[in-house]
Amino acid sequence: MRYTNRTNLLLAFILSAFLGFLASSSAAENLGFPAFTSAPVGSIIRIPVSGTVTSTGILTISIQYTPTMMRVLGVYGGPSFAFRCAGKFNPIVDSSAGRTGFYSVECGAVQPIVNGPLFEVEVELLNGPDTSGVISITQLVANDSVIADAEFVPGTVNVEGGNTLRPNEFLGIGMVYPNPIASSFTVSYVVATAGTAKFDLFSSGGRLAFELGTSVSHKGVNTVQFTPKLWEISQGSLLLRMVTEDGTYFYPVMVVK
Questions:
Q1: Over the stretch 162-192, which tens digit does the pLDDT of each residue have?
Q2: What is the DSSP string of 119-158?
Q3: Which of 11, 13, 75, 145 has a CA 20 to 30 Å removed from the CA of 34?
Q4: pLDDT in tens, 27-36
Q5: 172-255 is a CATH 2.30.110.10 domain
């Protein structure tokens, strides 16, 4: 009986260690917003982001949101979060055009955590043409290396008491196909003023990655095809920027090799 008890204890210890190993090895990076957030128009709220982060060093977070009904004001962490940078994180990208907004920040004080609070995103709810939008993290970079297998969960944000009017005419980049980009790709875009449209690819950190070229545009819907030298571009998430007489517009793309 004594031998059996010792054996059972040893087996229980081995099983516990094995299960702990499996749990730690399966803890992939994942960051998610609440499924649903709602607040009155004009409110400034902080939306929590939770999940699992195992990387350390300098981490860069890229956020995409609907600028026609909200505006990202900043990202905040602290001692009670995995991202422990004090105060407002250093913004790298803060731009919006058309119906897509981009906001990127970095933090150099990150404590690994599994299924816990990561940071908060402060947003202002606007009285714009939309009363519902989406906010999501689109990329996580650790020490200048994209974490390719990171998982992101978007959230829906509703504005209470806002109007529901929409603009009659959409301007900007409507579609990029195929996306992800592996070779040639086509951009469909809309302009209100005939002229030219200049296209460039930028990293999530706001650095110019590749100059695609300029296309002559007529009023209305246009298409242009590009065949860039992909071996000169880093694999991962990029921003396609279009500059026209009407304004500057961005569209998220993914380069794969």
A1: 765 554 456 788 788 888 888 888 888 888 8
A2: EEEEEEE--SS-SEEEEEEEEEEETTEE-TT-EEE-EEEE
A3: 145
A4: 589 999 998 8
A5: no
